[in-house]
Amino acid sequence: MKVLVAVKRVVDYNVKVRAKSDQSGVDLANVKMAMNPFCEIAVEEAVRLKEAGKVEEIVAVSVGPDAAQEQLRTALALGADRAILVRHEGESEPLGVAKVLHKLVEREQADMVLLGKQAIDDDNNQTGQMLAALMNRPQGTFISELNIDGEQVSITREVDGGLQKIRFQLPAVITVDLRLNEPRYASLPNIMKARQKPLDAVDPAELGVDLEPRLAVLKVTDPPVRQAGIVVETVADLVDKLRNEAKVI
Amino acid sequence: MSRYVSWFDSPLPCGLYYNQAHEAWRSTIRSFVDEEILPHVEDWEEQGTFPRELYGKAAEIGFLRMGYPEELGGIEMPDPFFGIVAHQEMARHASGGLNASLSSHNIGLPPVAAHAGQALRERIVPEVLAGEKISALAITEPSGGSDVAQLRTRAAVDGDDYIVDGSKMFITSGMRADYITTAVRTSDAPGARGISLLLIEADAEGVSRTELSKMGWWCSDTAAIYFDGVRVPRSHLIGPENEGFSLIMRNFNSERLMMAAQSLGACRVCLDAAVSWAQQRETFGRRLAEHQVIRHKIAQMVQRIQATDAYLLQTAWRLHSEEAPPVVDLSLLKVQATEAMEFCAREAMQILGGAGYMRGHPVERIYREVRVSAIGGGSEEIMRDLAARQLGL
C-alpha cells in the first residue's frame, strides 16, 4: 500500500504571532517556521503503519515555497520515503491544495491520503474533505484511532457528542486529530539520512492545477484585548450579573 | 507594537554557517526541551537530581552521540554548528546543572574513544553513548586543579594492575558516574610530565564518594571521590603512560566552544525574560521598556549577545577548517561568553526586580550559575593567561 501524507509549513506553534500593521496578514518576518503539528501526527501514523508492515511506501507532499523543503526533510527524517514539493508562493487555499493532492493521488496511484485535520495558521479544516469529494472516495475526519485490515479501514473519530466509529474501504482520505498518537522526535542520525532521500519539485501547472487564490482577505487584525474579569462573592451575584449585565440567561 | 522576536522563535540565518539540517536538529532539541525537561526542571532543581532515564532519551534523539565514531555508536558530525545550536537550545530550560551532568561524557569520554585500547573502547563507549552508563572526568584534587603539577593521586604498577591512591574534587557527575576518566601521577617527573589517564570503574573496591552541595547547578551531582588502594587493570590506561596531560588539553578545544554556546544560550534566556517583563510592567505611568535606563540595559545585552554569537560562529568555523586550533580565540571566546552571561544575568535581574529574585525563576537560576560557568572548564584568569602565552607576550 502506498500512502500520501500532506505536510504544511506554518508558523511554529510556540511563536506569538502579530498582525502586520497594514492589516494585510500575519507578520512572518524573522519568524521561525515549522511543520503544522497535525501534519506531524499524520506523518507519525503513516510511519507506524509502515513499521507494522501495512504500508510499503510513504510519500510526503507539500504545497508551498521552496523553503517548505525544510518541512518535507523533517517528514523524511521522521520516516517518509520520498517527498514532493509543489512550488507555490503566497497563500495556499484548501481547494487548490485538494486539487493538487487529487492529481498526485492519481499519478502516484496512492491507496490512502493522511492529512492533519487542519493547519494552525488559517484553521480552515477543509482540505481533506474537499479532496475526498474530488476523489469521490470515503473520508474519515478527526480520527483518534485507526485500524487497517486489508482494504478495510476502521476509525474512531472525535465528534461533539462523543466518539463515532466508522468502517469504509480504501482508497480513502483520513484527517487526524491530536489524540491519535504522539509523534516521535526527528533524531540526529535520521535528519542526516533524510538529506539523501529523494525530494522532487513540480510546478502546479505540470499537474494542470491553478493555485491562484479564489478568496480575498479583507483584513487581518490582532484579537481584541480582553477586559479584566471580576470576582463575584456569591452564586446569587453571579446569576444576577449573567442575567442583568451580560444578559445571557 | 513590539517587533522583538526571541532568538528561540527566529529562524537560523541560513547560508553562511547554518543550513536546513541545523534548523531541523534545533527543532528536535526544542521539542525535547519542551516535552521532556521544562515540565519537570523546577522540581528536579529542588530535588537536587534528575532521573537517569533522561540520559537514554537524550541518547535516542542523538544529543549524547554527537561527534563520536559511528562504529562506537556515535554520530560523526560534518561541522561544529550542530553542537552549537543544540547547546544553545538546551540552555532554554535554564538548568546549567542538568546540562553539565547530562553532557559530562563530553569531557570524560573523548580520550577513551580516541586513545583507549580496542577492547576497553568497544566495551565502554557504546554503553555511554546509549545513555546506559555515565562517564565523568576527574582531574581536580583538593590540592589543585588548573595547576596539574600539584596532582598527587598516584598510580603505582603492581603486576598487571595499577594501585591507585588519592582523591578528586568537584567532579561533575561524580556521584552517578560508572566510568571515571582519572588523571593520575605515574612518575615523579615534574609538572605535567608524569601524568597519565586511567579509566576507573566506580564500582571497583576502594572507590568511595561524597556528594557536594553547591551555590548553583543544583540538579547536577558533584562529588569528592576517594581512591583507597584501588586496583585498576593496566589495560585501563588511556594513551601512553605519562602522556595524559596532552590528551586532556586536546579535548578542551571543542569543550570550550560548547561551553561558550551554553553561556550564550543562557544570555538569550535572560534577554527574553527581561524584554518580556519590561514590556508588561508599568512604573511611573510608562512601561519599563520606555524608561531610558531600562531600554539601554536591554540594548547593551543585545550588543554583547550579538558580539558573542559572531565570535562563537567565527571561532567555530576556524576550528573546523584550519589545521591548527585557534587556541587564543577559543580561550578568549569562553571569557567573552561567560562575561556576557554575567552581564545579562545581572541586568535581567535588575530589570525583573523582585520577580527575578524569586527562587525558581530562570534568571534567578542562571544568576547562581554564572560563577561556575566562569570558573569551570578553564577559569577566566587561566583562559586569559593561556591566550597571552599563545600570543607570545
Written description of the protein model:
The complex is a heterodimer of chains A (249) and B (393). Chain A has 249 residues and is α/β, with parallel strands linked by helices. Chain A has a single domain, classed as HUPs (Rossmann fold), CATH 3.40.50. Helices cover 27% and strands 27% of the residues of chain A. Chain A contains 6 helices and 11 strands. In chain A, the strands form 2 sheets. In chain A, strands 9-8-7-10-6-1-4-5-11 form a 9-stranded mixed sheet, with helices on both faces. A two-stranded antiparallel sheet of chain A has the order 2-3. The radius of gyration of chain A is 21 Å and the shape is globular. The mean pLDDT of chain A is 95. Chain B has helices at residues 20-37, 41-47, 53-61, 81-90, 96-102, 105-108, 110-115, 118-129, 244-280, 292-321, 327-352, 354-357, 362-375, 380-390, and strands spanning 135-138, 154-158, 161-172, 179-185, 195-201, 207-211, 222-233, 237-238, 282-283, 286-287. In chain B, the strands form 3 sheets. Chain B has a 4-stranded mixed sheet. Chain B has a 4-stranded antiparallel sheet with strand order 2-3-7-6, with no helix packed on it. A two-stranded antiparallel ribbon of chain B has the order 9-10. In chain B, a hairpin with a 2-residue loop joins strand 9 and strand 10 (286-287). In chain B, helix 1 (20-37) packs parallel to helix 4 and helix 11 runs antiparallel to helix 14 (380-390). The N and C termini of chain B lie far apart (51 Å). The mean pLDDT of chain B is 95. Classes of the chains: A alpha/beta (249), B alpha+beta (393).
